[in-house]
Amino acid sequence: MTVQPMTRRPVTGSDVLKGLKKLGVQKGMTLLVHSSMRSFGSFVPGGASAILAALTEAIGPEGTLVTPTQSHDLTDPSTWMNPPLDEAWWELVRQEIPAYDPVWTLTGGMGVIVETFRGLPGTLRSGHPHVSFAARGPAAACLLEGHELDFGLGEPSPLAKLYEAEAYVLLLGCGHDSNTSLHLAEYRTSYRGREKIKHQAPMMVNGEKAWVTFQDFNIFSDDFDKLGLDFERDCPACFTRVNIGDASCFLARQRDLVDYAERWLATNR
């Protein structure tokens, strides 16, 4: 069988860097990045490493790069729904699933760019077993420290610290349904149907694995795409959009997004 050559121009790291500068990414920024590698629509020489190199160059050594590094697989098997696990194996899984470890635990559903970033030497990661963040740069340790288990995307989280640090949100080829910062607005808003729930995760406690219970709200992102579209309609001066290859990329100050989302959720949920 004859294999057809790739004829479409690759999207290079230089292209990504030019696109980031056109978006408004600047030296010294604290940047919370969500990404989709496949969205670029063409071969990227160097893959995720090339994207991360462009991001790092765009913000410079004085900037800090942050990504969500969620690991929702570390949940009690009785709660698994997609697909559910036969009850006969629940206790086996509880016994054998490894405890959360910021270095060893893989991300889930975050994509190859985030997983590559997480594994780079010198990248720090917060201690939450479900909704951790990873960061590199001068502000990394300050942003990640003290990430409490209860209400893990609320006030005692890196998201709230990013808000105070005047951070920016960058969506590289993904939609607002991936925009983790909008969850911070959920915690700051009393909307219809909000309830406290409990989660469990395996963690190391006094040198031994234990299933730890913590509180959260029943947060969800089903309406985040609509929220984001309304933000772009109502606040056109607060964001920029640029295509890099086929990837539609978005940049906005996190504070503007969260403040708008608080008002939107109070009205629309």
> Which spans have pLDDT < 50 for at least 5 consecutive residues?
none
Helical percent range?
Answer: 25-40%
Radius of gyration over all CA atoms, rounded? 19 Å
Shape, please?
Answer: globular
Work out the strand percent.
15-25%
Q: What is the strand tally?
A: 9
**Chain-averaged pLDDT:** 95
The count of helical stretches stands at 9
The arrangement of helices and strands along the chain is HEHEHHEEHHEHEEHEEH
Structural domain count: 1
Strand order of the biggest β-sheet: 3-4-2-1-5-9-8
Largest sheet: 7 strands, mixed
Structural class assignment:
alpha+beta
Report, as a whole number of angstroms, the end-to-end distance.
55 Å
Give structural notes.
The protein is of the alpha+beta class. The protein has one domain. The chain is built from nine helices and nine strands. The protein has helices at residues 13-23, 47-59, 90-96, 112-119, 140-144, 158-164, 181-187, 224-234, 254-268; strands spanning 30-35, 64-68, 124-125, 133-136, 168-172, 196-205, 208-217, 239-244, 247-253. Strand 6 (196-205) and strand 7 form a beta hairpin. Helix 1 packs parallel to helix 2 (47-59) and helix 2 (47-59) packs across helix 4. The chain is globular.
